[in-house]
# Entry
Amino acid sequence: MAGLLTGRVALITGASQGIGHAVAAAFSTEGAALALCARRAGPLERVAAMLLGQGADVLALPADVGKAADIAALAEAVRRRFGRLHILVNNASLLGPMVPLAEYPPEDWETVLTVNLTGPFLLTRACLSLLRAAGGGSIINISSGVGRAARKGWGAYAVSKFGLEGFTQVLADELREEGIRVNAVNPGGTRTAMRAAAVLGEDPGTLPTPEAITPVFLYLASEASRDVTGKSLDARDWIGRSVG
Ligand SMILES: NC(=O)c1ccc[n+]([C@@H]2O[C@H](COP(=O)([O-])OP(=O)(O)OC[C@H]3O[C@@H](n4cnc5c(N)ncnc54)[C@H](OP(=O)(O)O)[C@@H]3O)[C@@H](O)[C@H]2O)c1
# Structure
């Protein structure tokens, strides 16, 4: 039986754990071929091996989205292996220090904005010809609640997510006529390593798992959302919903 994403190619950054891993597994279950990246080779290879064992078509490449050369190599590897791209999920990000802006180290500011905002910009640019080769597609940028209403102590992370929301809207408007849709997703608090580092003392058992929040990603990646672009959706609203 054909899946929701059969015949589609999806590139997901930061796919070795947490939300990126869960989205990769969900897309693969629906028939997508996958290109995955993260900085550390070991965890990424373990995820790729697991998905391959389940019959997935997977390209896994260690790459740092904060490095322009890694981004170029990643897009080129996707071009060589698949020749086109239908879905790009800009998921990788860094939390950075949780300190007031007055005390925020400038070098951390630079690193967080480079990975969380410039990385998606550069990777999207590098992938545009592949998305066009597919005849259209879906770009999904992972935002955050603090990218819509900021709170003290969230520093460059919050600022980068505000930037990503703006990037989403500008790009959506520019690519609308080409059938390339661009949307943002706020996952909401989710049971991952990043969340545990951000909110100390929280009981992870009270949070949805990364697997539970995948329906919104399936929706945005698939034909079910063919008219949706320039939006910012909440993953929590989609928990338990079936798509397609
Ligand atoms: N969890 C939440 O509650 C929550 C809430 C709101 C928004 N978000 C957003 O959801 C997304 C996923 O978060 P998560 O909680 O799943 O995070 P996570 O558990 O920390 O996982 C992050 C993933 O990104 C990779 N990564 C980090 N920096 C990278 C870089 N420079 N280049 C390439 N890969 C990189 C990590 O692998 P390596 O370390 O090997 O690179 C890992 O695979 C992020 O955009 C985050 O801001 C999460």
Observations:
- The chain has a mean pLDDT of 97.
- The longest helix spans residues 106-133.
- The helical segments are 18-29, 41-53, 68-82, 106-133, 155-175, 193-198, 215-221.
